[in-house]
Amino acid sequence: MLSKSDLQQITKAFKTENEVLRNELKSEMRKGFDKLDKKLEYAINFLDRDYIKLLKRIDRIEKHLGLEPLFP
Q1: Given Cys at both, which of 9, 11, 28, 62 links 67, Cβ 3.0 to 4.6 Å?
Q2: What is the mean pLDDT of residues 16-40?
Q3: DSSP label at 69?
Q4: Which helix (H) or strand (E) holds 53?
């Protein structure tokens, strides 16, 4: 039969192991979010660059045709 001291030691061991696993899980999640963040940042920069190019082209066409911009 387990004594109260034995149960306390088991509880302490479980809590310690639980904290270790929780920290490892947080670390792995952080790595996953960092990878996702990098990919998302790349996609946003790519699309933003294309958008700016299109704005320049539209501005050039409007000037060439003598049109006023729809949105100042």
Answers
A1: 62
A2: 92
A3: P
A4: helix 4-65
